[in-house]
Specification:
By secondary structure, the chain is mainly α. It is elongated and about 85 Å long. Helix 3 packs across helix 6. The protein has one domain. It is built from six helices and no strands. The longest helix has 51 residues.
């Protein structure tokens, strides 16, 4: 039986549990972290917490896009095959797409959800260049972090499994030599 099936098993049940735990932990962390920053809203902490939770949940779309694109596209198809220049170009492209998604969310969705939660307390800002760049930063500040964490987990798991295969092959080679 495999050790640590929650971490290393490819069974669908364990994979779904792993990913659900990962994203729930990220959402709770992100919600809590950004609930302490007042940002553009001058409201109390207890008003800011639900707003932050909803915003964090919405920003998980570009975060998931970046993380899964890195884990299941960039790393296995480019990085692990030694195509480092192509890896860098793909990663930069993924960052730009993630930034664009984050900006669209920031400009078009967040005001709607803020006004739903806060009512008349929230006054939607006029869309301008500042909103555009704040949207880029808002999505990327957590996106780059979670993308890096997801990529690091993917690489650590890959190298651990590779090391385990090498140890098994060495053990089999020694065993076959001893039989001779």
């Amino acid at each position: 039986m495999e050790r640590y099936p929650f971490i290393f098993s490819n069974q669908l049940r364990y994979r779904l549990q792993r990913h659900a735990l990962f994203w729930i932990a990220w959402w709770l962390f992100h919600s809590t972290l950004y609930s302490f920053s007042a940002g553009i809203l001058n409201i109390s902490y207890f008003q800011r917490l639900p707003v932050s939770a909803v915003e964090s949940f919405i920003y998980m779309v570009p975060h998931m896009f970046l993380s899964y694109s890195l884990m299941y596209f960039a790393i296995p198809h480019f990085l692990l095959k030694g195509k480092y220049v192509q890896t860098a170009l793909v990663v930069i492209g993924l960052f730009l797409v993630t930034a664009a998604l984050s900006t669209l969310i920031s400009i078009y969705l967040l005001s709607y959800f803020r006004s739903l939660i806060l009512g008349n307390v929230y006054v939607a800002p006029h869309i301008n260049e500042v909103n555009f760049f704040l949207g880029l930063l808002s999505g990327l500040r957590g996106g780059l972090t979670i993308g890096g964490i997801a990529a690091a987990i993917k690489l650590m798991k890959y190298w651990h499994l590779k090391e385990q295969r090498n140890l098994q092959l060495q053990k089999e080679a020694i065993s076959s030599q001893l039989e001779l």
